[in-house]
Write a structure and sequence with these properties.
- The complex is a heterodimer of chains A (106) and B (274).
- Chain A has three helices and one strand.
- Chain A is mainly alpha-helical and 106 residues long.
- Chain B is 74% helix and 4% strand.
- The longest helix of chain B is centred in the last third of the chain and has 26 residues.
- Chain B starts with a helix and ends with a helix.
- The chains are: A mainly alpha (106), B mainly alpha (274).
- At the A-B interface, β1, α1, α2 and α3 of A face α3, α4, β2, α9 and α10 of B.
- β1 of chain A pairs antiparallel with β2 of chain B.
């Protein structure tokens, strides 16, 4: 374990991808939370059908967020010419896509 | 609905601190306390794992606790593992798997217990692949008020373990965050906080692949999953604020009983159904 006060050389590169992904995940979770919250409020006031629809929409936004995260990470790595890591993301996306296609059949 | 909401907040706090999904709290609560069917509970829990992961990842990314490069490398293992697990489910003897994974967890719990007093790993020599991929990381520890640089080793063994943890997630319908943290902590020798933050970041993707199936089957009940997700998101906001100020040894003390409990529970399930 090396402990130092200095920043590693890759700081700026890593910082950018982390802030981009943080922003994406924040937007995704806020939209999902607002939709789910609105749905719960609707169910409390008696609009059962509307409530179901709003909450389901929120849950789907939540579900899409990590998948978007892998996609955006892949794009950032391509832009930074980090080909290895772009390939890793691509493998993950292929596995996710295969899971979605096969999963629907189960 | 209020009770579900409050318990979900607790699950979000614990899950975000320990790098787990919180399913370990959500599933028993929904089935035992609220009498919901197991499929509804597991579906709600899987969606809530995405919520913990997403909510916690925002803070951990900004605090630079998450090692995104390690996460991308290891996600190849978890994603392909989860796919294999989903394909093999129904073919493989689940009871045998429960016992096997339970024993593995017990072993890593024992190792973690032995390392319970250590705050940070020492003398880690990065392997060649780790150097080539520049997997080492750095974060600012708010408790010690200093920047912590660390190296990563066991790059290939780590990926192989992630493949099996992904397969366990797919086969057994669990988040498998408990395997991810153990692997990063003990095999790849990452600092414990970086391990839980990185596991948190990764479990969202593992859970998303499972959640798609539950959605397609209609197991996701909005009126159950909705309050759980909202509670877990709030809990994750609180948990992340707590975690960056906690001692590693304190987090380990929370983690070890949970790993022991999960190990015993898995072995028991396997033996009970034999």
């Amino acid at each position: 374990m090396v402990v130092s006060e200095s920043m590693p050389q890759t700081e700026s590169k890593l910082l950018s991808i982390e802030l981009i992904l943080a922003r994406l995940l924040r937007v995704g979770s806020i939209i999902a939370a607002l939709l789910v919250g609105a749905g719960i409020a609707a169910s409390a006031t008696g609009g059962a059908a509307l409530a179901q629809r709003l909450i389901t929409a929120g849950l789907l936004v939540l579900l899409a967020t990590p998948i978007m995260r892998v996609l955006v990470a892949a794009l950032v790595f391509v832009r930074q010419r980090e080909w290895h890591f772009a390939l890793f993301c691509f493998v993950v996306l292929c596995a996710l896509a295969a899971g979605i296609i096969l999963g629907r059949g189960i | 609905m209020i009770e579900i909401f409050l318990i979900a907040i607790g699950a979000g706090i614990v899950g975000s601190i320990l790098g787990l999904g919180g399913g370990i709290i959500i599933v028993p609560t929904l089935t035992l306390l609220f009498g919901l069917p197991i499929r509804t509970a597991v579906a709600a829990s899987t969606v809530s794992i995405i919520a913990t992961s997403t909510g916690a990842a925002v803070a951990y990314l900004q605090d630079r606790l998450t090692n995104t490069r390690v996460a991308m490398w290891l996600e190849m293992g978890t994603a392909t593992g989860a796919l294999t697990g989903a394909l093999l489910a129904g073919v493989v003897n689940q009871r045998f798997l429960f016992v096997l994974f339970g024993l593995l967890l017990g072993y890593s719990g024992y190792n973690m217990f032995r390392a319970r007093k250590s705050e940070l790993p020492t003398g880690v020599v990065p392997d060649r692949l780790s150097q080539k991929l520049n997997l080492g990381g750095s974060y600012y520890d708010h408790l010690q008020h200093r920047q912590i640089d660390y190296q990563v080793t066991g790059t290939i063994p780590g990926l192989i373990i992630m493949y099996f943890s992904g397969a366990a997630a797919g086969l057994l319908g669990i988040g498998a965050g408990i395997f991810k943290v153990s692997a990063m902590d003990q095999v790849m020798r990452m600092p414990f906080k970086a391990s839980t933050a990185t596991s948190n970041f990764m479990i969202g993707v593992t859970a998303a692949s499972g959640a798609v199936v539950y959605f397609a089957r209609g197991d996701v009940k909005p009126l159950v999953a909705g309050p759980v997700v909202l509670g877990v998101l709030l809990g994750a906001l609180v948990g992340t604020r707590l975690m960056i100020r906690m001692r590693t040894t304190t987090i380990r003390k929370l983690f070890i009983p949970l790993i022991a409990y999960t190990a015993v529970e898995m072995i028991y399930k396997g033996v009970k159904w034999w």
